[in-house]
Amino acid sequence: MSKQLAPWCPVAATVDVIGGKWKPTILFHLKDRPRRFNELRRLMPDITQRMLTLQLRSLEDDGIVSRTVHEVVPPWVEYAFTERGLTLGPLLDAMEDWGHAYGKPLSHGEREGPAA
């Protein structure tokens, strides 16, 4: 018996590229301007260096973010939206607006979900 494939869903395709715990926050911080790696780390203190690296690589692989190494002493790396990534601007703006209108800021260490 052959495996039945689910119909293609554009929302699922979008979530596959920008979904997860960290990617939306990374994209939010890159939305207005390029950022250095360590600047992203400071803006996202709860992410590990390894996880930030993995998430940025994934966004690079999907053509959303570009990585530029500046060959100066000391060298530094900057991340920015690609042309494809810039097309996410309206979506990120809508998510930001929704978050301001309906989102509940979580206190440090608090997790969303059913009460225990």
Could you explain the architecture of this structure?
- This protein has one domain (12-94): Winged helix-like DNA-binding domain superfamily/Winged helix DNA-binding domain (Arc Repressor Mutant, subunit A, Orthogonal Bundle).
- Helix content is 47%, strand content 12%.
- The model has no long low-confidence stretch (mean pLDDT 88).
- It is built from six helices and three strands, in the order H-H-E-H-H-E-E-H-H.
- 9% of the residues are buried.
- It is an alpha+beta fold.
- It has a three-stranded antiparallel sheet.
Brief descriptors of the model:
three-stranded antiparallel sheet, Arc Repressor Mutant, subunit A, 3 strands, alpha+beta, 6 helices, 12% strand, 116 residues, single chain, globular
From the coordinates shown, what is the CATH architecture? Orthogonal Bundle
Element-by-element helix/strand order: HHEHHEEHH
The total of helices stands at 6
Rg from Cα = 17 Å
Q: What portion of the residues fall into strands of 2 or more residues? A: 5-15%
Average of pLDDT: 88
Distance from N terminus to C terminus (CA atoms, Å) equals 43 Å
Strand order of the largest sheet: 1-3-2
- Structural class given helices, strands, pairing? alpha+beta
CATH superfamily: Winged helix-like DNA-binding domain superfamily/Winged helix DNA-binding domain
CATH topology: Arc Repressor Mutant, subunit A
